[in-house]
Amino acid sequence: MLKETPYWWDTVTFPAAHSGAWPEAVDVAVIGSGITGLAAARELARRGARVAVLEANTLGWGASSRNGGMTLTGLKLGAGTLFARYGRELTRRLFAASVAAIDLVETLVREEGIACDFTRSGHLEVACKPAHFRAFARSAEVMAKEFNHPVRLVARADLPAEIADPSAAGELVVLPGPASQPPPPDDGDEATRIRRAIERAEGDRALAATMLGMSRTTLWRRMRALGLYGQGGEAEG
To answer: What pLDDT was estimated at residue 37?
Structure first.
């Protein structure tokens, strides 16, 4: 039999509807009792406003009680679309607001004693095919350059340490909180690091450059300087 409600609903009791007298007037009426509406009403009330929350069903009826319990950074639209539509400055502010929203959720959980096992562990996006992973590499560059937000690329060869799906082509791990781009792992001398990055990227030098934390031009120059290019333009074994 198909279950049409979230499993965790079976572990909670939804709050009863308001049964008292309605106020004759309020300063602010909030429509909808999802996490956004309730958080707004809470903050307004704390600042002394008279607030009423209006909900057609019960508290948390919509997406707030039907999702997977994840709070993610970023926005629905891609960075390129946002840059074209709103410009770089506003897009950066919008992304920063998405990160600050997670801070707000954490504060609400702590101050209200909400038992939801909240943790800041970041999230991962899994590539179904190599083209998706190459797109992840471009996203990683944008996240680090434009938003100063940490991400980590995991190539196919390193996936067993993260997930147990042998069909995946790689993944992008978006770490929690703003910070500098993490340095690449120290795999020995520079030539060895470059060789291993190219192996993990399955020969894709643009992806290897992103994994090494350098531009494609810098990677090309370092390979030339280290004698990693053969006569045919390929890295020597």
So the answer is: 93
